[in-house]
């Protein structure tokens, strides 16, 4: 029997993912990384890892500040694109976040833009948390930027249509088994119906604290948006957590 591919492997490796999300605010995202660097003030030459780095945009941004950066992602397609940016201070590797990578090596680890919570079982999330922690030196810093459960659920649209050029994406969203599910329906250029899904765990701040305490990490600060304003469980659009090992 063929093993079923996880949703994130098929969807993130698809060209339609980039089409659907082409209108994301990249300037805001870039400013967020700059705000983080100003807040954390990492020493020059710090070793950093961008976990689930995609095509490497933010790893490149970190490396431009003079840090030694490694980007890792499960998608061969994304890492192939990211490798075009490699230099003496920046490398990219295909890596499953659940599997330990370098051990006691990094000063800082980043997990941007809800790139966690993808798995069906909590044991896999805990494996990922332990892997994140294992890669950091003692005293190392982990930044996780996640959706804010209260904010998202209060504003969840069960149905939405999004037009991108010649494509019409019909989106259906629901909460199921404490996961926020988004089903994505459209027809491709050959008029063939397509369906992809996203599934992200609806973790609360308390869930993260428990999980990462088990992995040997302590929550130090929480912010609620990309300008690093205070976190509010209902009103903040993001949940940006800074953990220490």
From TrEMBL:
CDD domains: AdoMet_MTases (cd02440). GO terms for molecular function: methyltransferase activity. Signal peptide: none annotated. One of its GO terms (biological process) is methylation. The keyword Methyltransferase applies. It comes from the Bacteria. The keyword Methyltransferase applies. Keywords: Methyltransferase, Transferase. This is SAM-dependent methyltransferase. It comes from Taibaiella soli.
């Amino acid at each position: 029997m063929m093993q079923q591919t996880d949703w994130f492997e098929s969807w993130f490796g698809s060209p339609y993912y980039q089409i659907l999300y082409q209108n994301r605010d990249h300037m805001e995202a870039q400013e967020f990384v700059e705000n983080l660097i100003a807040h954390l003030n990492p020493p020059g030459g710090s070793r950093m890892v961008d976990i689930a780095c995609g095509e490497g945009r933010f790893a490149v941004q970190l490396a431009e500040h003079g840090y030694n950066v490694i980007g890792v992602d499960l998608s061969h397609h994304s890492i192939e694109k990211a490798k075009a940016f490699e230099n003496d201070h920046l490398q990219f590797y295909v890596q499953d976040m659940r599997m330990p990578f370098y051990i006691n090596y990094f000063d800082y680890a980043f997990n941007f833009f809800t790139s966690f919570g993808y798995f069906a079982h909590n044991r896999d999330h805990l494996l990922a948390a332990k892997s994140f922690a294992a890669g950091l030196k003692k005293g190392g810093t982990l930044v996780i930027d996640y959706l804010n459960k209260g904010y998202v659920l209060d504003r969840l649209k069960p149905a939405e249509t999004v037009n991108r050029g010649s494509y019409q994406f019909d989106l259906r969203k629901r909460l199921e088994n404490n996961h926020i599910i988004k089903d994505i329906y459209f027809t491709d250029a050959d008029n063939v119906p397509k369906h992809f899904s996203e599934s992200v765990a609806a973790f609360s701040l308390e869930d993260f604290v428990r999980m990462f305490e088990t992995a040997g990490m302590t929550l130090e600060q929480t912010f609620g948006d990309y300008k690093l304003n205070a976190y509010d469980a209902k009103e903040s659009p993001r949940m940006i957590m800074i953990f220490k090992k």
